[in-house]
Amino acid sequence: MSTKIAVNLPVKDLTASARFFAALGFSPDERLANETMAAFVIGDGIYVLLVEQAQFAAMTKRGIPDAAAASEVILQLQVDGRRRVDDLAGRALAAGALPANEPNDQGFLYGRSFRDLDGHHWDVFCTGPATPGGQA
For 5-26, how does the pLDDT look when each residue is reduced to its tens digit (9 = 90+)? Predict the structure, then answer.
């Protein structure tokens, strides 16, 4: 039996947020989409569902924190190698994300972070042996 995860994120502008995630190279999943929600495949069994704020509030029956002002969660994506870390973080920044922290290079762990269009904090990282010239 496998388990999958779908992370639901409230978004202010569904069209802009969907365009952002497409720019990162993630594939849309139209089966989970409707007029208030867009879905993207992040990896095997991992989805992000972008939900318009009004719909998100109706689903949770709770207030939505301003992710640009308060931390709600840190979403971490482990990828294969430093080049993939740099590629994904670079795509995010080119698509309008803001850097969240300075790059983290501990040799065995390398990561970069960004805040998406709604301020959600994403870390992209890889692990493995340190390599000369910082390439894995």
Answer: 999 999 999 999 999 999 999 9
